[in-house]
Design a protein that fits this description.
Elements lengths: L4 H15 L5 E4 L6 H15 L4 E5 L2 H14 L5 E5 L4 E2 L5 E5 H4 L11 E5 L11 H12 L4 E6 L3 E2 L3 E2 L10 E5 L2 H6 L6 E3 L13 E2 L2 E2 L1 H8 L2 H16 L5 E4 L3 H13 L4 E4 L5 H13 L4 E4 L14 E4 L6 H9 L17 H9 L7 E5 L3 H5 L19 E3 L6 E3 L33 E4 L2 E7 L7 E8 L2 E8 L6 H13 L8 H11 L4 E9 L2 E9 L1
Parallel strand pairs: 1-7, 1-10, 2-5, 2-6, 3-5, 6-7, 11-18, 14-16, 14-17, 15-16, 17-18
Antiparallel strand pairs: 3-4, 8-9, 12-13, 19-20, 21-25, 22-23, 23-24, 25-26
């Protein structure tokens, strides 16, 4: 199986991390970025090259099937088995066992000695005692205490934990490989998201939270009102009438979903509903009919947020406020899969060709995102999500949008900078349209760059060389070279030196810094940066 360039890069960085003595890596790849090929090639390294036995876990049976097919393509001669009640299989003794979390949880001892476990959608792994994932890991480590764990997800964050590499009981040690949404959109591997005006906003004032999320019962009462429902129907109908083809609506609860679906049908929009109460066979039939175009709108409650693949979706109506940045990311990913006019896209295709084929396909305008719950204000655009430490506290969004100038203001602020006075909160929907962008700033290119070097030291860590890129308007971005690190950070520093200076770096940070200050590096024509949180990250250095 030929890999896309960024997939190959992720695999190399993860293997370098292992070879450097690292353990338990978290791998972050956006929805639609192709995690299964990455997982399959990591298994080939672990099983084919090092004769290890492992378990690959998913939380849904559909993902087990996808993983199995990917592994068979990459490792056609490997001994691969499935452990899943849904599949009716409980295979013991395979080199790679692919199973569902729920089926494996009570039978981990039967797996025998495992050298590694890989978890897809690993943001679903709670660190609390007694959870199924924790039972699986404890059982596996009882037979082999040097068990390796790796996880893949589009989101490095949980609402009740914060970042998956931090906090008490964190399963993962570091994130050596991460692919950004903006990178894949710019390179035309993903379809962009665009914000649409909405006719109402759900009133979130004073809404309580429980375990880091809005209380479900209260949230449904706020969302399931006629003013919001009619706005959703009007907005989705208008989007489909404008040439868009497939809409997904995310509701707060079963009754809310039923009311939205009924209202859609009354307005002439062919619609169906899928919830946790929907029979599995019926769910599969409805999803197949939806993909085939039998109806145009699919309303769901918490069942199609992961593992659902319908690339043609070009309208997402988010009528479900959430405090979970992970859920925000996962739902956004339902609309970002591209559809190319040529069908399957070769991994070695050019950016220009991919853009051309995307523009000629059925969703040339990307996916329209209709935000009725303030999720963009709460979490940020999909290519620059604010993964805060641990969620908690009250239920109000941390910002509110000025209806006059559209600035973001703290919820407690009474007067915006433009002079607009915010009214006292009322228990009703806000009819103002949300105009926050679904995608943030694109990557920027900077020329006429000068470069400065400095020593960067931090307690408990090896010293680093800080490389500052400066333009006429000031410092643009910085890179850090950890020459003395023996893991993947050191590997990255050596690669930078080979490209930008030539040859191998000196043994110590002090010697490298002295060389750079005396002789500099190869001339730089321009650099490219992308916004990551509060800072610019260097994404490419073009030598002159």
């Amino acid at each position: 199986m030929q890999l896309r360039p960024y997939q190959q890069d992720v695999i190399e960085k993860t293997i370098t991390y292992w070879r450097g003595g690292g353990h338990n890596p978290l791998i972050v790849v956006p929805t639609g970025g192709g995690k299964n090929p990455i997982q399959g090639h990591l298994c080939r390294f672990l099983v084919g090259d090092h004769k290890r036995r492992g378990l690959l876990l998913s939380h849904r049976a559909e993902l087990v099937t996808q993983t199995y097919e990917a592994i068979r393509k990459i490792m056609p001669h490997a001994d691969v088995g499935i452990w899943s009640a849904t599949h009716g299989q409980r295979r013991v003794g395979a080199d790679i066992t692919i199973g569902t979390r729920d089926s494996v949880a009570g039978h981990i001892a039967q797996m025998g000695r495992l050298n590694f476990i890989g978890v897809d959608e690993c943001h679903l792994m709670s660190t609390k005692d007694g959870t199924r994932y924790r039972k699986i890991l404890e059982g596996a480590r009882a037979s082999y205490d040097r068990l390796e764990l790796f996880g893949l997800s589009a989101s490095p964050h949980r609402a009740d934990q914060g970042l998956l590499t931090e906090g008490e009981g964190a399963y993962f040690d570091a994130c050596p490989a991460e692919v950004g949404v903006r990178q894949l959109v710019d390179d035309a591997w993903l379809s962009p998201m665009v914000s649409g005006d909405v006719g109402a906003q759900i009133d979130m004032s004073g809404l309580k939270t429980r375990n880091g999320e809005f209380v479900a019962e209260e949230l449904e009462l706020r969302a399931d009102i006629d003013e919001v429902t009619m706005a959703v129907v009007k907005d989705v109908s208008a989007a489909l009438s404008s040439g868009r083809r497939m809409a997904m609506v995310f509701a707060c609860g079963v009754k809310h979903a039923m009311h939205l679906c009924e209202a859609m049908r009354a307005a002439g929009v062919t619609s169906e509903i899928v919830t946790g109460l929907t029979d599995k066979a019926q769910r599969a039939r409805l999803i197949a009919d939806y993909k085939a175009g039998a109806f145009r709108c699919l309303v769901n409650v918490d069942v199609l947020t992961t593992g659902f693949d319908a690339p043609g979706v070009d309208v997402l109506a988010m009528v479900r406020p959430t405090r979970s940045a992970s859920l925000h990311v996962q739902i956004g990913g339902r609309g970002m899969r591209p559809v190319y006019a040529c069908g399957m896209m070769p991994p070695d295709s050019t950016v220009e060709y991919r853009r051309e084929q995307m523009a000629a396909g059925p969703k040339p305008r990307g996916c329209l995102y209709l935000d009725y719950g303030g999720n963009l204000a709460r979490h940020g655009p999909f290519d620059d999500v604010n993964f805060r430490p641990k969620s908690g506290g009250g239920g109000d969004a941390p910002v509110k949008v000025c209806p006059k100038c559209y600035r973001l203001n703290a919820t407690a602020k009474l007067i915006c900078e433009c002079g607009h006075e915010f009214p006292a909160p009322e228990k009703k929907a806000n009819a103002r349209a949300s105009r926050l962008p679904a995608m943030g700033t694109r990557a920027e290119r900077h020329g006429d760059i000068t470069i400065a070097y400095a020593l960067h030291e931090k307690a408990g860590r090896a010293p680093m060389v800080r490389v500052d890129y400066v333009s006429s308007i000031g410092k643009v971005a910085s890179e850090w070279l950890c020459i003395e690190d023996t893991g993947w950070l050191g590997e990255r520093a050596w690669r930078w030196w080979a490209k930008c200076v030539g040859g191998e770096p000196y043994a110590t940070t002090a010697e490298c810094l002295a060389h750079l200050k005396a002789h500099g590096q190869r001339p730089v024509a321009w650099i490219e940066t992308a916004r990551k949180g509060r800072y610019n990250e260097v994404t490419h250095v073009e030598l002159a």
